[in-house]
Amino acid sequence: MAKTRLAWLLTLLSTHCFFSVLAVVLKTNNNSPWTNEFDKIELSCLIESISTINPRIEWKKITNDGPSYVYFDKKISGDLEKRAVIREPATLLITNATRSDTAKYRCEVTAVDDQKSFDEIVIDLVVRVKPVVPKCSVPKSVPFGKSAELSCVEEEGFPKSQYQWFKNREEIPNDPKISSKFSNSSYTLNIDTGTLRFIAVRKEDAGEYFCRAKNDAGHAECPSQMMEVYDLDVMGIVMGVVVVVIVLLCIAVGICCAYYKRGYFSSPKQTGNNYKVPAKGDGVDYVRTEDEGDFRHKSSFVI
Ligand SMILES: *[C@@H]1O[C@H](CO)[C@@H](O)[C@H](O)[C@H]1NC(C)=O
Ligand SMILES: *[C@@H]1O[C@H](CO)[C@@H](O)[C@H](O)[C@H]1NC(C)=O
């Protein structure tokens, strides 16, 4: 009885061992690797256990459009063709990553001679992209007390860029209240959109501004631009308006006078059909042309 039990136990044990040996099992060093664009990156797929001599190894790239082959029939295919190699036994090495490589990749190994003949492992690759020089817009000149908006946009960076603003080469804190230097300023800064908004500018807000876009891969800055703040002086405006009104009045009076004179003096001219005759008769100025002579004649008459 004891013997049969022992035999049964041994059989169970050996069966268990048999199954665990004849199974393909994969593992990875890193299932969420990242690299910067144009660098190399390894998508590790290690075979922990296998009995099959010549297993079938495949890599698929999984995007929103579904899976596509990266490594199939012992060849790298598709977009990665010239940029990747397989490192024994099943690791995929991308030699020059591009931003479009950001995706999930699946390493699949089929081992026909193993009891458990299939295993797969998914690796989530992120290719980081440095920001490019952001597009910045800084108003040149803002009236005192008015609002102002400075914007900074950069769209290449991956992960998405965050933004910092600098005034006179000094970083502007996210919250003006935490800084003694900026505590009286009325701005709000959105580091995700890059917008620096002043509710009411002060004289002290004038200065050289630039913005930096940054992410894990690097950063880039736009050239600094000057923002000036000018006074909207009420007295100045009133004086300005008064001066403009006076000037307009003078012009109006001038035009009226001119009309009046022309109206008054055009009637005698119409009576004399030939104006050469009165011009010569007066002997005002024979050298001048007829028109000028006529004018001269009229003006001398006025004086
Ligand atoms: C990687 O690819 C980019 C663009 O295709 C190229 O400009 C660069 O020289 C490549 N780098 C290497 C190390 O091959
Ligand atoms: C902020 O305003 C207060 C009150 O007007 C003034 O006493 C203080 O000096 C100002 N601080 C700065 C940094 O300009």
UniProtKB/TrEMBL annotation:
GO biological process, one term: cell migration
Keywords: Cell junction, Cell membrane, Disulfide bond, Immunoglobulin domain, Membrane, Signal, Tight junction, Transmembrane, Transmembrane helix
GO MF annotation list: cell-cell adhesion mediator activity; integrin binding; protein heterodimerization activity; protein homodimerization activity
Signal peptide coordinates: 1-23
Coiled coil: none
Localisation per UniProt entry: Cell junction, Tight junction; Cell membrane
Protein name, UniProt field: Ig-like domain-containing protein
Organism: Channa striata (Snakehead murrel)
Organism taxonomic ancestry: Eukaryota, Metazoa, Chordata, Craniata, Vertebrata
